[in-house]
Amino acid sequence: MFCALEHVVVSPKGGGFSGPADAALEAAGRRRTVVLSTSGFLIVPEVVSRSDMIALIPRRIADGWSDQVQVVEPPLTIPGFTIASVWHDRTTNHAAQRWLRERLSTLAAEG
Q: Are 21 and 78 in contact (CB under 8 A)?
C-alpha cells in the first residue's frame, strides 16, 4: 500500500525526486511514486493535508499537524540526516548571533 500511494519528497537542493527512503526501498526491491518535490519539510504537512499524497518527514514536524493529518510509523527504516547551521563570516563575532547559534546548538544537543 505504501508504495502504491503518491508521495511528496523533500529535496533541499531542489528538483530531486528521490531521497534516502528510495535507497531503502530499492534495497527491499520496492519503488514508490514521487509526484511532488519541495525544498523544505515545513510545507509538506500543509500539502499532504490538502491532497491524497503522503510524505516521510521528521516526527517533530508531523506531530504538530496530528490534528489535520494521520501520523504513522513508516513501513521501513529510513536513515537520518545531518542538520547544519551556516552564517556569513562577518557575523561570527556578532554578540546576538553568537548567542543564537550557541542556544540552537544547546537545544539540538538536548534532542
A: yes
Cβ-proximal residues to 85 (8 Å cutoff; 6+ apart), any chain: 101, 104, 105
Instruction: Write out pLDDT tens, residues 15-72.
Output: 789 888 998 999 999 999 999 999 899 999 999 999 999 999 999 899 999 999 999 9
Distance CA 10, CA 27 (A): 20
| Residue position matching grid coordinates 500543509 | 46
Could you give the residue ranges of the DSSP H alpha helices within 17-94? 20-27, 44-49, 59-63
Quick one: pLDDT at residue 111?
67
